[in-house]
Design the sequence.
């Protein structure tokens, strides 16, 4: 073998070894790059899921806060509406009671109700009956006769301060069926009035 050929063979051997080592280094670099890319994708997906989760939590918190605010505003609106209805009802109720008292059938039912409570709760004997001045005399006389038949001794007194109704006193106890007496318990009357007003609105 000539020196030239030996040299070329040696150069070829070095080149092949170099290519083999370069290929091995390149394969290792590609493997590392693939591993890094895979880790990067995993981390990116994890960060994305975390970001989406945080955004969902923020959105849920905003929705919850909006719903709470809406519920508060609805309650406030309902309270304001109820207060307006009640104020309007209270303004009309005194005259409504006077109008009821002036209607004969309603007035008789009113008187009968007060008398029934008085018979159930008051002792017999002297009964002082204070009434609205416009109670017709014929009705007063019939009422007094009915009470006398039960053993009561009625004393009827017209009071100009009473616009409607009557109250019966006996033995220190009073059954107050006057307009003023009926309106005295604002809490109970207010709740009953509000229910009636709201029911009337629903029907209308």
Sequence:
């Amino acid at each position: 073998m000539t020196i030239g050929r030996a040299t070329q063979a040696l150069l070829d051997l070095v080149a092949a070894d170099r290519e083999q080592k370069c290929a091995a280094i390149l394969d290792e670099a590609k493997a590392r790059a693939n591993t890094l890319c895979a880790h990067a994708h995993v981390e990116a997906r994890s960060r994305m899921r975390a970001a989406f989760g945080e955004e969902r939590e923020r959105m849920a918190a905003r929705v919850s806060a909006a719903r709470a605010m809406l519920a508060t505003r609805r309650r406030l609106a309902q309270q304001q509406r109820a207060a307006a209805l009640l104020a309007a009802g209270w303004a009309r109720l005194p005259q409504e009671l006077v109008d009821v008292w002036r209607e004969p059938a309603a007035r008789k039912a009113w008187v009968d109700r007060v008398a029934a409570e008085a018979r159930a709760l008051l002792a017999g004997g002297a009964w002082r009956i204070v009434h609205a001045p416009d109670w017709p005399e014929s009705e007063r006389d019939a009422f007094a006769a009915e009470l006398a038949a039960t053993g009561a001794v009625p004393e009827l007194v017209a009071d100009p301060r009473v616009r409607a109704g009557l109250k019966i006193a006996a033995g220190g106890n009073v059954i107050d069926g006057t307009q003023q007496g009926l309106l005295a318990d604002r809490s109970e009357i207010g709740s009953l009035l509000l229910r009636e007003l709201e029911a009337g609105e629903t029907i209308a």
Remarks:
- The mean pLDDT is 82.
- Residues 3-102 form the longest helix (100 residues).
